Structure formats: structure tokens, C-alpha cells
Amino acid sequence: MKNMSIPNLNIPDTIVKQRFGTGWVTWANIEWIRKLTQLPIICKGILSPINAELAIKYGANGIIVSNHGGRLIDTAPPAIQCLEDVINAVDGRAEVFVDTDIQSGTDVLKALAIGARAVLIGRSILYGLACGGQDGVRRVSDILKHELVYDMACCGLTSIDQINKDILYKH
Ligand SMILES: Cc1cc2nc3c(=O)[nH]c(=O)nc-3n(C[C@H](O)[C@H](O)[C@H](O)COP(=O)(O)O)c2cc1C
């Protein structure tokens, strides 16, 4: 993967404009932002090794493996299924995070075990907010944390840094 060739992504402007309306979203945007700041740039919505490679090429320091909850393309592959290939492609050159359908502590545990640096959570937190405001958000967070700690205990793990791929196969 390190020596892979980068395909020519000269997508016609008309197609880009059709898809993104007034915006012109291309890899050149990342390159432009990279020139503006030394702050870490994290690219969200990466699902394939080739796009992970491109994100790094254009200056990303981190990648969020995400299908945006299926909000862009209904049949986009589940992020969790793409995570391992992206991690392997990145090969330590950037942080890799994941979101989409992280709905339980078990989901968090599995994502970390595959190798995600951290997970991000969208709708579950929003549901808590809708149901109970600040307390609802705290309750969702507490439930997820309780489930994660419980599942870690079931796997004989006492700290996050002990989580590794072995638990995916041994339990
Ligand atoms: C109401 C709503 C608005 C969202 N808007 C954006 C957005 O503007 N940009 C983006 O990258 N993702 C957006 N997302 C996707 C989320 O950031 C996240 O990738 C998605 O919800 C998957 O995580 P989840 O399964 O925990 O919700 C949105 C999601 C929801 C539910």
C-alpha cells in the first residue's frame, strides 16, 4: 500500500458542482487548508484504503472512517467493516477514528480492538439530548461507559490500552 500509485481524480467540474451545489469539494481543499494552518487536519468520511492514502497525501493528520450514518449514500458500506483495511493502509502515518452505528459499549470495544484510536458517537447522544436534555446526554454516556467497562471485565481487561485484536477471536 505504501508504494501504491495514486489514480488521476480529475473529476469534471460539472459533476462536482452537480453533487455539491455551490461548494467545490475536492482533495485540493485539503491541500489548501494544509497551507493555511499547522493544526491537525482530520478528514471524515473515509471508507477505503485508496481514499485514506489520498487524505494523507494531501496533508491529513487523522482520518475518521465514517459513512455519515448512511446520509450521503444509502448503500455505503458499514464503517466498522472498512476500519481494518483503512488502518492497515494508514500504517501509523495518521490517527484513525471511526463513527457510524456505535450504539453500545460493545461496539466501542470492538472498534478499539480493531485498532481505532477512538470512536465518535452521533445519533445516540442526540437521542439522549432529545429525551432528557443535558441529563439525557449524561445518561447515554454513562450507559455506554458502563457497557464498555462490563465488556472489558468479561474479556479480562482492566485498561483501555490492553484492548487488542485478540479479544475479537478468543471470546
Ligand atoms: C442530524 C445529523 C446531521 C449530520 N450532519 C453532518 C454533517 O454536516 N457533516 C458530517 O460530516 N456528518 C454529519 N452527520 C453524520 C454524523 O457526523 C455521523 O457521521 C453519523 O451520525 C454517524 O454516527 P452515528 O451512527 O453515531 O450517528 C450528521 C448526522 C446527523 C444525524
UniProtKB/TrEMBL annotation:
Signal peptide: none annotated. InterPro entries: Aldolase_TIM, FMN-dep_DH, FMN_HAD. Its cofactor is FMN. Keywords: Flavoprotein, FMN, Oxidoreductase. Residues 1-171 form the FMN hydroxy acid dehydrogenase domain. One of its GO terms (molecular function) is oxidoreductase activity. This is FMN hydroxy acid dehydrogenase domain-containing protein. Transmembrane segments: none annotated.
